[in-house]
Amino acid sequence: MTDHMIAVSYDPVQGWSAPEIKPYGPLALDPASSCFQYATNVFEGMKAYVGPNGEPRLFRPDKNMARMEMSAGRVALPPFDTNELLKLIKRLVAIEKRWIPTQKGHSLYLRPTIIGTRPSLGVAASDSAVLYVICSPTGPYFRNGARPVSLLAVSETVRAWPGGTGGYKLALNYAPTFKPQQYATKLGYDQCLWLLGETITEAGAMNFFVVVRRDDDHLDVFTPPLNGTILPGVTRDSVLALAAAHTAHTTLPSVPPTTRIHVVERELTISDLIQWSAEGRLLEAFAVGTAVVVVAVGRIGYEGKDIVLPTHEGALGPVGRSLYERITEIQEGKFEWEDWSVVCA
């Protein structure tokens, strides 16, 4: 971890305390705190990058703040001012600037967190909280070069369900996925492809996309809709926007300007993937998220058989590679787009 952290606490009588940027260190919490007993824990994942002139930058931080506010509300944690929190985060990043790696593919990972601290075993909303932000330098998702990941389609256990909490970034969504992940690893797969029946939701802790060739030889880019079981990822939203802008407002690096991309949020089933693969129309599958940005999917295991995706030099296909390159260029301030890259003054 880096040298400093943000810490601020909420008391039901006094409200929020004056925020501190202080030396990194442990928190003192009552063992009966709501966060330990009832999983009232919300977090975000963000990254800071070094821009062309050495300035620290954040990528679409307003999206993280809005999602954190929404997630905290879902578990009835005290409300907070996202604008003020973002000011604090920018200040922290500026202070910790020396910790941001300058190597390609490296960044400073930020983990804003809010936890319920009501010291009671009563089953009720927490009227006390601690909000803190910690940072850690991080390297590329793949240390030895990019490669496609393999997914095991899992339906016996589910990550999320209609009316549940899958659309929120809550700690309680993650622990139940660890055991199925161990099983997938034992079978030789990297991650789980989470199904509800036959319907695809997410890949590991990432959003899932496929590229399908249309009858007119142009491309469909499909991803599951935000129906409450899908986390509204910042990278997901960025991929949708950039893919939809191809040829109309920008040209993606590795996609010909004559190729039209049709972006559709629609229900995807494992049967769809099997059919498109059999027809030779399934051109790419990839997963997206803060950690990986965009990562290729090489095969998907389902009922003892693998759906094998086409191979591409450098792992990602033309659409996935273009999106990865464009997003990382924006993150590092090398390509200006819609004020997505925010300088931390």
Would you write up a description of this structure?
The strands form 2 sheets. Strands 1, 2, 3, 4, 5, 6, 7, 8 and 18 form a 9-stranded antiparallel β-sheet that branches. This protein has 345 residues and is an alpha+beta fold. Helix 4 links the parallel strand 9 and strand 10. It has helices at 34-38, 61-74, 82-95, 178-186, 234-245, 270-278, 318-331, and strands spanning 4-11, 15-16, 20-23, 41-43, 46-50, 56-59, 107-116, 129-138, 149-154, 191-196, 199-203, 206-213, 219-223, 261-265, 282-289, 293-302, 305-308, 341-343. The radius of gyration is 21 Å and the shape is globular. The model has no long low-confidence stretch (mean pLDDT 97).
Write the layout of secondary structure elements.
Elements: E1 4-11, E2 15-16, E3 20-23, H1 34-38, E4 41-43, E5 46-50, E6 56-59, H2 61-74, H3 82-95, E7 107-116, E8 129-138, E9 149-154, H4 178-186, E10 191-196, E11 199-203, E12 206-213, E13 219-223, H5 234-245, E14 261-265, H6 270-278, E15 282-289, E16 293-302, E17 305-308, H7 318-331, E18 341-343
Parallel strand pairs: 9-10, 9-16, 13-14
Antiparallel strand pairs: 1-2, 1-3, 1-8, 4-7, 5-6, 5-7, 6-18, 7-8, 10-11, 11-12, 12-13, 12-15, 15-16, 16-17
Helix pairs in contact: 2-3, 5-7
Features:
single chain, 345 residues, alpha+beta, nine-stranded antiparallel sheet, 18 strands
Quick structural overview:
It contains 7 helices and 18 strands.
Radius of gyration: 21 Å
The largest β sheet comes out as: 9 strands, antiparallel
Shape: globular
Terminal CA distance reads 22 Å
Q: Per DSSP, what share of the residues sits in E-state strands of 2 or more residues?
A: 25-35%
The helix-strand sequence is EEEHEEEHHEEEHEEEEHEHEEEHE
What is the overall pLDDT average? 97
Structural class based on helices, strands and sheet pairing: alpha+beta
